[in-house]
Specification:
With about 425 residues, the protein is of the alpha+beta class. Helices cover about 25% and strands about 35% of the residues. The longest helix is centred in the C-terminal third of the chain and has 17 residues, at about 355-370.
């Protein structure tokens, strides 16, 4: 009902919240806030009290009640730039506000919806229209018509798009999985593949889609994180979780330069315990990792066998190297001079102490295989504390630095342990 709040649990709390927001928190106390709102630590009622005092006067332009426990209100500030706030309340008890997302309001003819496989060609066109400016370079990715292939490798992922009558104006995805940080396991949400073409920027599309991504995992996520290319000036300006003191590198290895003799053998399901043990021995100390036990490793390798499965994992003596032949087409334009490549992605990898040379032989074997299949490059995620960092840095044609943003504070000694980043979640 436009401009009117429903007589429901969320409607009553919205009336309290919006009334005090419009009054800039006059007469409101931290105890009042605590009776009506609750969020996980490090939030405290005083934080929201400060936010009330910073609010500007508004009128309620529209209310969309999604359920008795969730609604979105559009707020008109009189400046031609309305905002939407989505509120969720507890389904029992005092019905406190437990979720809240703010986003720029978007035109009524733009629908925010979940992406579906048939969106693939349009999504690929959108990404091609949204190249990334990385310092002196402009990078364009072309994933082809099966644009959402990467989502099939993830355990729990959702992608939202802004759809204006069949024209896609933006994309943002979220994936939930477990990570271990400082010895503690968290259910963490990765915000990834955020794309808004130039012609749609500045109109609130990004914040509206972003709100849906975070809202999807509000009740289950314990952490949120993301990566930003250090050379991406626009991305570095965006808010989000605090950055750790160190990040990671996306190493780019040239297949033709590193191609070697065939080595190793394709893995089989019987190798799952050995693979899991090698990954744990190599990367078990790293932050943001959760080594796979044999059972979950099998699920990973059988989740999307057309993309990545047992035969894509090479086994050596004390070393493993899994590669997704992604056929990602990349065009890098540097000062008007373009160059193109086709990339694969290193996924599960590692070696036991003393088997570093064996891992490098597997790299050569894989590079020859990729070269013969039409790939020119393979990417490898690493950090300075990672066991394979020295080898990867030596082999790489380039090392692209990324900032690591994580809502969980950086544990003491993390820089020495390094990051073990699952490239599926990047």
């Amino acid at each position: 009902m436009s401009g009117e709040l429903p007589d429901t649990p969320v409607g009553r709390q919205a009336e309290w919240f919006l009334g005090h927001a419009n009054a800039q928190g006059t007469g409101l106390t931290s105890d009042d806030v605590a009776r009506h709102m609750w969020f996980p630590p490090p939030w405290e009622p005083v934080h929201s009290l400060e936010r009330f005092r910073e609010e500007r006067p508004f009128t309620i332009a529209k209310v969309v009640a999604e359920s008795p426990h969730r609604l979105t209100a559009t707020l008109d500030y009189g400046d031609g730039k309305p905002w939407a706030v989505s509120l969720g309340v507890e389904e029992a008890g005092e019905h406190r506000i437990v979720s809240m997302q703010w986003a720029r309001a978007i035109p009524d003819d733009v629908v925010i919806r979940e992406a579906v496989p048939s969106d693939g060609p349009a999504l690929n066109g959108l990404e091609v229209r949204a190249p990334m400016a990385l310092g002196p370079e402009t990078v364009t990715y072309d994933r082809g018509d099966d644009f959402l292939a990467f989502t099939r490798l993830m355990e729990d992922n959702v992608c939202w798009v802004g759809d204006a009558g069949g024209t896609l104006l933006g994309l943002a995805c979220g994936a939930l999985h477990r990570v271990r940080i400082g010895g503690e396991v968290y259910r963490a949400m990765l915000l990834h593949h955020v794309r808004v073409p130039r012609e749609a920027r500045g109109g609130g599309i990004f914040s509206a889609i972003n709100m849906r991504v975070f809202g999807r995992y509000d009740d289950v996520r314990e952490a949120a994180y993301g990566y930003t290319a250090v050379d991406n000036a626009a991305g570095m300006k965006l808010g989000g979780p605090g950055a750790w003191s160190f990040g990671l590198y996306r190493a780019v290895l040239a297949c033709a330069d590193l191609a070697g003799d065939p080595h190793g053998r394709p893995a089989t399901p019987a190798d799952a315990p050995a693979i899991a043990a090698t990954l744990k021995a190599c990367h078990g100390h790293g932050e943001v990792t959760l080594p796979y036990p044999a059972g979950s490793l099998a699920a990973r390798l059988e989740r999307a066998p057309d993309l990545y499965t047992w035969e894509y994992v090479l086994m050596g003596e004390g070393a493993v190297l899994g590669v997704w032949p992604a056929r990602l087409r990349v065009t890098v334009d540097r000062e008007g001079v373009p160059s193109s490549s086709t990339r694969a992605v290193v996924l599960d990898h590692g070696c036991l102490p003393g088997a570093e040379a064996e891992l490098e032989r597997l790299v050569g074997s894989w590079c020859a295989r990729l070269r013969d299949a039409g790939h020119t490059e393979v990417t490898w995620l690493t950090s300075e504390g990672s066991p394979s960092y020295a080898m990867v840095e030596r082999l790489a044609a380039r090392m692209d630095p990324y900032l690591f943003r994580m809502s969980v504070p950086e544990p003491e000694g993390a820089v020495k342990r390094g990051l073990y980043v699952d490239a599926v979640y990047f």
